[in-house]
Amino acid sequence: MQGERKIIWLFGGSGSGKSSVAYSTAERLRSKDHLAATFFFSRKHLSRSQTDHVFPTIAYRIGLLHAHAKEVIIKAIKDDPELLTAEKSRREQFEKLVTDPLRALQYVWCTKRAMIFDAADEGEGDQINDLVYMLIELLRDPSIPISSILFTSRPLFRLGSLTRNNGIESMFISLRIEDFEATHDIEVFLCDSLRRIYEDRELQFMHPQPWPPPNLIASLLNRIRGQFIVAATICRLIRDATDPIECLDLVSDMYTGEVEPLSLNLTGIDSVYYHILSDCDTTSRIPGAKCLADITALAETLSLSDLCRLFATRDVPKHITHLSAIVVIPSIESRDTVQVYHASLRDYLSDESRSQEFYVHPKVSHQRLVCMCLRLMKRDLRKDICGLEDPSKLHSEFEDFIYRREAYISGALRYACLYWPYHLLRSECTEETRALVVYFVKKQLLFFVEASAIIGSLHAAVNGLTDVQRAISKWKPSDDQKLALKLLYDAVRLVLQFIEPISNSALQLYASALPMCPVITQLSSTYRDLFKDSEVSVEYGLNNPWNYIIRTFAVEDGASIVMSPDGRRYATVVSTAMAMSASGIPARTPSTIYSRPKAM
């Protein structure tokens, strides 16, 4: 990958071995000190399907490689801690966390290095385009010691429009993994994997060598046709079988048509998936498929114990035990997460023409998940959930704060708080969903805000509540809809006005923020009991509705006006005078975000 600066784009179908190529290439480059950084996108993790974490991850990798780069990165973060947050623009992150540190290594790295980005098709489309355009700048800048960038993705990624519209075709090399003969590699993989199974399961007492026979290996290779995922799944299926020899014979018979467990195309992964899903008691097949579909729809993987809490049943292990060939299933005591081996399983379950009776519409899974999240929060959320008691103390002043947080907010509850809006936006709107959402906003909305402050996700909570407003606005008009929209609007306004004190001490939500909420708002009247004992008393000024000021914050001099994409909000400096702090030291220029009045 040395020589002329290029972006190499490797295309390949699902399960064709693209990620294996990315991993092995990364290891080979790393062993020669030719690797700068990697990032592996994944639909199994919401945080890795977006570009929010790409540049901080690259910066971390680069910082580990050399002290010069590390110093530049640390200084940038000290100067602007928000560089590590999703709220910071990707452009600023790119320049401060990637470009500047790499430029500092211009005369340090004797050999230019490469970057690798796997599964680009599993990231958000427009975000990936922006990422590629910025990375091209690294290749064009002679002061940046980066020579090549490798991307992998499925063929559906629209590389043509990405390059043609910007006149950068000459910088791209496009390759198809199917153009490479992989039969020998798969043969080596199959033989090595089956040899390990033979030794680990002590099959020599049941079947003499050679096992499996060469003709059986040849038959499998002919049917697998270069699909690494099929080979890997077959090996896991045999490894976990009660009788590996019988299992291999069954797989062989299935591929040669001597048994008829399915009527699907036998040259791909579908036949293997169908066989594994069917390999249990008939009454367990559909519940197992539903459970599996819900697991693949999660925004973030969870441990088995947290899955049981979220799903509110101890039957999760029972539903997925027979799926160990396609799902990583840790023990109930382990903190390791349950996850599918390959993203193609989600595609299979959501395509009725492929999965047939195991088909589960994604909206149905998201509907079940949002209801699970809302029920869990209904059970577990409460005022002062961590027993902090004293709102005057910052979180950092509690020596056991982290212990309390882990003890009282389970991984399942944390997941519910973070991702219930995500599932709501993607779900079918049912009577059950509406009833749970209305109950939540009327009874638990502020407990949710408190928990979000404790787990450090207030900004995400604001974004989530805004998404919920958008979802509820599509409901059939009713009194409950109007009430819910009013409460959500008030909650967002309250959090934004008091985000700093609530972030540092969650109980300030009840001690100071709520008492200062305009009394004519729906939030103030609905949640009055939560602050009736507050020591804060406001004499006047709360009889008016929310004004147009959403949030006041500090900015450096010379800040410009910024308009939001929808034109509803903009930020601008409203005072050029230097404010004086209590100590007499000039403070930074205050800035305010305004909310435009809605058109009547």
Automatic annotation (TrEMBL):
Keywords: Repeat. It comes from the Eukaryota. The keyword Repeat applies. It comes from Coniophora puteana (strain RWD-64-598). Coiled coil: none annotated. Transmembrane segments: none annotated. InterPro entries: NACHT_NTPase (IPR007111), NPHP3-like_N (IPR056884), P-loop_NTPase (IPR027417). This is NACHT domain-containing protein. Residues 6-155 form the NACHT domain. It holds the Pfam family NPHP3_N.
